[in-house]
Amino acid sequence: MSGCVALIVAAGRGLRAGGKLPKQYRTLAGEPILRRTVQAFCRHARISQVRVVIHGDDRPLYEAATAGLDVLAPVEGGATRQESVRRGLESLAELAPQHVLIHDGARPFTTPAVIDRVLDGLSLAPGVIAALPVTDTIKRAGRGEALIQETVERRDLWRAQTPQAFRFAEILAAHRTATSAADLTDDAAVATQAGLKVMMVPGGEENVKITTEDDLQRAIRTLDAELELRVGQGVDVHRFGPGEAVQLCGVRIPHGQGLEGHSDADVGLHAATDAILGALGAGDIGHHFPPSDPRWRGADSALFLRHAARLVTEAGGRVVHVDITLICEAPRIGPHREAMVRRLAEILGLAPSACSVKATTTERLGFTGRGEGMAAQAVATIRVPARP
Ligand code: MG
Fold this sequence. Notes:
5-stranded mixed beta sheet, 12 helices, alpha/beta, 7-stranded mixed beta sheet, 18 strands, binds magnesium ion
């Protein structure tokens, strides 16, 4: 007998939020929504185990989303939410937990305090749900119409959220006898239909269910507010040598000379890579890709830049913007600038408006002025979780 198991329901198709993926698998600040949801329960000291109910088609998505997390093997859901929950509960019967906490996979912002309040309530009632009193004035319209029929008394109205916690044996019995004719959209409805008393405790305004594209965008803004904004800079220099083209910001430009270097000697992408690594506090390009390593001989520098951006994603952040200045007398950059911006945007997965390439000469002064080599400077802006 284990104490309290969390059952996360993530079997819905949920394509309403747009995009090709069910919403629980879409990404928020570099992490699938479902991973964030599951972690909230895995990290809670009073939850002994976590199981997710998934759609059969989503198994690879699920495996990727929960990689490395300590969860029970998933079970496949049914055609309706109610059926999915029932299958999830049946699968837990052999564990015979005392309590079960049922939660929506697309509700990733549940706080430990909400989980505590719901669990605390179980000493007073066999069922407890997170809910919030309705504060907007509620109108009833005719079916499919926008004309108001009446104003509904809101004093006794609440908005039900999840988690919803129950004594396990009682909610399992309620689901086994529930009529599937009625469309019961939460487990409190299944419980009360079976005659169980269900109590409400305060949920949280932040504990939203991500349903529409608007919800998703709002969630991204919520998370962004929790991420700190950082700026990094990078500088690179390469010497001109024999050759017939230079590689700059991922674009090959015919030129009377080439640039010398171990890789493709793309000063623009090297400076941008160092700027991102700098913002992340993750060393420099030479640390990640030592010039002594034969693997990087002649390498496409897009690989270095992509690696730096991936480190940001793995830290739970994202690259926001990159600005590169190329410093040389020749070749002329202007005719290639747009292609460079497009390539940069493609490598980083950013909008072209978030990528900038500029050029300057040094008025024939210094090594760039004498045409001995090229230099580049870059600035990168990233958002990452603030960590002590
Ligand atoms: Mg370099």
